[in-house]
UniProtKB/TrEMBL annotation:
Protein name: Short-chain dehydrogenase
InterPro entries: KR_dom, NAD(P)-bd_dom_sf, Sc_DH/Rdtase_CS, SDR_fam
Domain Ketoreductase: 6-184
Compositional bias of kind Low complexity: 324-335
Length: 352
């Protein structure tokens, strides 16, 4: 697939991963169509993108929870540039706290953005791609879509649904014979974005990212590569893959581990926080790719945590593959004694 002068639509482009993706696509000569709730920030980002190799950029303020607005986003992209080669669903909001503490309207708001927003984007993108015969839809899920965590249940549900959506859409496209239309799901580990500072919070405790923390640029690089080499699912950061494998192999152990990590490290035990709806209904002021969580100390913690996860994975896999009764080739002592007694009774040349 050629990449220069192709057209990509990015939702949630105002900040975080969406913003990082926009700048990386523009640096490679892509035409970028930027969608988000903050018009001023989108226009500022569009100006930045146009300075990258004279890339074309169009800002379209869009609330992804409104299907009519998302259809209009696709119509604007097609009217302006004639095609949509890639569509990146990146918008997301979250609400921290025990489920019973989070107001039902906030839970619904998280699901409206994180599930229905992706459904609206997928419908608009696939309609355009079916008409032109090719294209790639990228849905950004999360490592928690494979390994759930507590105190963020609405977001976990949304990201699990996004992963399931990808599987369903791939099957539909195969059955309809559209082999040149791809659906890719991206599962990042914790990323250094404004996500944590902007989230709704009803836990009573300040939210901190759970190590290891990776940069949004790392996710953007992974997403841009999907334009040339589409894949079903890709992980961002070794920790994301390790958690997914551990959750599949030893789900109960992984749940206990993540529960402790979330309670001890993700929510502060010393810093209180007032209840807030965050950016679930209203976008925050300002725009940035980073949240200020990535640095030397966190890089060291990231590497240490990844090493621990990988070691746990190897040890767990070793225990799962070990034959019952001990190491391979070793006969349990009781069975060995019974066999020797049988041989003595039958004689050395007896059959069986």
């Amino acid at each position: 697939m050629r990449t220069r002068n192709n057209v990509v639509v990015i939702t949630g482009a105002s900040s975080g991963v969406g913003r990082a993706c926009a700048q990386r696509f523009a640096a490679r000569g892509w035409t970028v169509v930027l969608a988000g709730r903050r018009a001023a920030e989108l226009e500022e980002l569009a100006r930045r993108c146009r300075r990258r190799r004279r890339a074309r950029a169009l800002a379209v303020p869009t609330d992804v929870t409104d299907p009519t607005a998302v259809d209009e986003l696709a119509r604007r992209a097609l009217a302006e540039y004639g095609r949509i080669d890639m569509w990146v669903n990146s918008a997301a909001v979250a609400a921290f706290g025990p489920l019973e503490s989070v107001p039902p309207a906030v839970v619904r708001g998280v699901l409206d953005t994180g599930v229905l927003g992706y459904v609206h984007g997928a419908r608009a993108a696939l309609a355009a791609m079916r008409a032109q015969g090719s294209g790639t839809l990228v849905n950004i899920s999360s490592a928690v879509g494979a390994a759930p965590v507590p105190y963020n249940s609405a977001y976990v549900m949304a990201k699990s649904a996004v992963r399931a959506l990808g599987g369903s859409l791939r099957q539909e496209l195969r059955l309809s014979g559209h082999r040149d239309i791809h659906v890719c799901t991206v599962l990042p580990a914790t990323l250094d974005t404004p996500f944590f500072g902007n989230a709704a919070n009803y836990s009573g405790r300040a939210v901190r990212p759970l190590s290891p923390v990776y940069t949004p640029e790392r996710a953007a690089r992974r997403i841009v590569r999907l334009a040339r080499t589409p894949r079903r699912e890709v992980y961002v950061g070794p920790a994301a893959r390790a958690l997914a494998v551990l959750s599949a192999l030893v789900p109960a152990t992984t749940e206990r581990f993540l529960a402790r990590q979330m309670d001890r490290h993700h929510l502060s035990r010393t810093v209180a926080a007032p209840d807030t709806r965050g950016n679930v209904f209203d976008p925050p002021a300002g725009a940035a790719r980073h949240g200020g969580w990535h640095g030397r100390r966190r890089t060291a913690l990231r590497r240490l945590t990844t090493a621990v996860l990988l070691t746990t994975l190897v040890l767990t896999a070793g225990r799962a593959l070990r034959p019952p009764g001990g190491a391979a080739g070793r006969m349990p002592a009781a069975a060995g004694r019974r066999r020797c007694a049988t041989r003595r009774r039958r004689g050395p040349w007896s059959a069986g």
